[in-house]
Amino acid sequence: MEFVNTSDGSKTLFQEKVGEHYHSKHGAVVESKHVFLTAGLQYYVDRNQQDEVSVLEVGFGTGLNFLIAADWCTQKALKFNYVGVETEPLPLTLLKQSGYNAYVADRIWEGFLTGYQQALSEGSQLNDLVSYRVACNPILAYTASEKFDVVFFDAFAEIHQPEMWSMETLAHVADLLNPGGVFVTYAITGNLKRAMRSLGFDIEKVPGAPGKREMLRAVKRAVGKM
Question: What does residue 20 show for φ and ψ, rounded to 5 degrees?
């Protein structure tokens, strides 16, 4: 695989086996910031005013969403606990070619590269505020004793990976989210909206990143709340 340029000048990879790019061709960094940072993580933090936040990402991929979020949390002096689930982690030699160092602080990028191999096994501490781990297994095989505040759902599109958007997968992910937690994804379909409602979420159509008219944000209702 080789990195290719997207419309905002940042790069993404094309996954031939799946037949899809890891990030939007209309702007990889723009999409990451719009969908996962602004509409997801920042939205949750602004609503809850916590000094610590935890994120589960379904589809770690190139690590771009993690890097953008880690950089933002470090700037805000916010403790950030992150787990990315990825069945096929990319080699460090390839990630070094992403050019994502241009979009985050040097200490974030250097800490990411230094700790990546350890993150694939036991987890790594990027800095005093940020810890991260990449769980190298299918999402349905991932379990955790802790619940998360935000889910970045960045699986490949349903047309290419329908199993990732099934009710079984969505229910499993929903169970890993705290009440009041936020689920965000770049996609929005009727089936997805119905599934998230049935799983106890209040859903919202949010303006999408370039190339997408809308995206989905869903907030998990507290137990017993209708």
Answer: -155, 150
CA distances from 38 to 98, 125, 154, 204, 208 (A): 22, 24, 15, 14, 11
Q: Give percent of the chain with pLDDT exceeding 90.
A: 89
Which two three-digit tokens encode residue 97? Answer: 């070619």
- Cα 93 to the chain's mean position, in Å? 22
Please, which pLDDT band fits residue 225 given cuts at 50, 70 and 90? Answer: low
- pLDDT value of residue 59: 94
Tens-digit pLDDT profile for residues 100-124: 999 999 999 999 999 999 999 999 9
Parallel, antiparallel or unpaired: strands 148-153 and 52-58: parallel
CA dihedral sign, ordered 57, 59, 60, 64: negative
29 φ, ψ to 5°? Answer: -70, -40
Task: Give the separation between CA 70 and CA 53, rounded to whole angstroms.
Answer: 11
Please report the DSSP string for 5-42 in residue order.
E-TTS-EEEEETTTTEESS-TT-HHHHIIIIIIIIIII
pLDDT digits (tens, 9 = 90+) for 57-88: 999 999 999 999 999 999 999 999 999 999 99
Q: Which residues, in sequence order, are bridge partners of residue 206? A: 215
